[in-house]
Amino acid sequence: MAWDDSSRDARPAVLISHAWTGRGEQEEHRAEQLAELGYVGFALDLYGKGKRGTSKEENAALMQPLLDDRAVLQRRMNLALDVCRKQKVVDANRVAAIGFCFGGLCVLDLARTGAEVAGVASFHGLFSPPGNTEGRQISAKVLVFHGWDDPMAKPDQVLALAEELSTVGADWQIHAYGNTVHAFTNPAADDPDFGTVYDADADRRSWQSLQLFLAEIF
Predict the structure, then answer these.
(1) Please, what sign has the CA dihedral across residues 196, 63, 23, 134?
(2) How far apart are alpha carbons 137 and 132 in whole angstroms?
(3) What is the fold, at CATH topology level, of the domain defined by 11-217?
(4) Nearest-CA neighbor of 110 among 101, 100, 124, 98?
(5) What is the pTM of this model?
């Protein structure tokens, strides 16, 4: 958790849900960036006890059980939200959540549960619905940053997500970046065959848009 301790005033908080590797430097850096903007950055650990994968196989082994049991994933996300709200420097009524890759799916699921968060933002996330939230109203505003050529979330899935969000009356936005694939915010992503490549323009544009989104919802 990162915040500017020059003030003791409670302030809005932003949960940060990690990619399939587990919480690491990328998520912690985002927490520090958010602290510099005047928020509390809360980089959650969905796997628990600092577990991290060191290969695609290990990452998949950590992520798959939560994809297979979305109810468990949703309970952990809501627990992280509850813990964040209890921190003295956090304004419990003003909390949002952002997520990267697998974390994007996690924050969308948090919204799908009807959690009372001001907004959620997914960066190159996965869109598959969980199967246990149909018809549930989404109170959180939803912002999605998506690489149009992402092989892990193809255009038909983008359209399906838009339809899902519209059906439940959500306030949603989808920003799609052309000639952009998965993991575009991760400077270490450089595997074209796997579909993960960093894109400095999409990274910059999405972060700027996030700041506008947070200013609006808070």
Answers:
(1) positive
(2) 13
(3) Rossmann fold (3.40.50)
(4) 98
(5) 0.98
